[in-house]
Amino acid sequence: MAKEKKIFFCKECGYESGRWLGQCPGCKEWNTFVEQEVKPVRGSKTVSVMERPKPSSIKDISSAEETRIMTGIGELDRVLGGGIVKGSLVLVGGAPGIGKSTLLLEMCRNLVEKNAGVLYVSGEESLSQIKMRGVRLGAYDDRLFIMSDNDIDNIEATIEDCKSDVVIIDSIQTMEAPGVDSAPGTVTQVREVTSRMLQLSKRLGVAVFIVGHVTKEGTVAGPRTLEHMVDCVLYFEGDDSAGFRLLRAEKNRFGSTNEVGVFNMTDKGLEGVANPSQMFLNGRPAGASGSVVVSTIEGTRAILVELQALCADSSFNMPRRTAVGVDYNRVNLLIAVLEKRGGISLSGCDCYVNIAGGMKVAEPSTDLGIICAITSSFRDRAVGDDLVIIGEVGLAGEIRGVRSCGQRVREAAKMGYKRAMIPKFNMNSEIESISDIEIIPVSTIREAMDVI
Length: 452
Hints:
Blueprint (H helix, E strand, L loop, with lengths): L4 E6 L5 E2 L15 E6 L29 E2 L4 H7 L3 E2 L3 E6 L5 H14 L4 E5 L4 H11 L6 E5 L3 H11 L3 E5 L16 H18 L2 E6 L12 H5 L2 E6 L6 E9 L7 E7 L2 E4 L3 H6 L9 E8 L2 E13 L7 E4 L3 H15 L6 E7 L11 H13 L7 E3 L2 E2 L5 E2 L4 H10 L4 E5 L5 H4 L5 E5 L2 H7 L1
């Protein structure tokens, strides 16, 4: 008989090792490794020649587009690529209390109104608890079936009997496969349950949504292979102090991963935000130094956000640099460019940069806005309240072009802004045709500082 093998895995990120380690190489956490036995693999079953699947020519395969089911939530449909694809497996992750279960229950409410079969399976809540939340969200329909169980065998049998179109598994860490000798939530259990859900969704054509817990770093707890097995990975993020939530697609086999859904948390659940720019700009102070408006592209739409900077005399030998919502290293790079090419000495000042509202911006089109905000705070002179700043900054102090500049300018004009500072490289007939806003082209940060 083959000997049973023992492995150690990290409870935070699922990293596997043949021996115990004090610090996890994956997530850098300490004392998170636990021991687990791995049973030897039995002999594979023999498949006759007639039962073996045969390859098909790509020309013989039907090229019809996948059938999608609209969820009735515009922001969710946007992130999914236009709706739910039948036979797909979707992983939804996020911090506790961010709104994962709320969003999925609202989706179930809309689906049953369109005569779609829905089964909601929870391993964390009882039936009465799910009903209380469902009544509050308006999901009170006799066509919505709920189940409280964590045995994957019972769940598979129920799905086959109900013939549901959409199944919700909340959450994958609470499900248990009876044939696996380990506790629920371990690496082996999560991998086995996800694999069985994947096979079930492809065999029956059922769309399955699984909810996954996240680690301290914000990634889904468990093995990284979990994200490779599913068709779509959605992450919920947002500031606890703010009411909005962002839904991003880290992986999507049936659509783009650049789209983002914006939701507002209310006492009646999550509501989609049709105009995110207005929400992020609410409460912007008038005539305050260090406050500028920049335009960022999220997926297929432009969003205006407020970027704030504060320069204060430092009481330390090494001044502090803090960045919230933007890349910290990028801010340090821009401060160096501002000192070298702009002639402003910031060596004795603490610099703080923040995106108001908790939004996170990764693209470099906000570089010029960061430089203008820092300059405005350093000189204590306010930038005009009717100005939108767009542009990427190079190490030589030049203003480089950005993508979709016309879309950004049109969004600014729609929001009532009268002036837009853009890279000179982006000046074209499309930009010049926008008559509701004054275009200010700049090529260096010296020119931009003269404008503000």
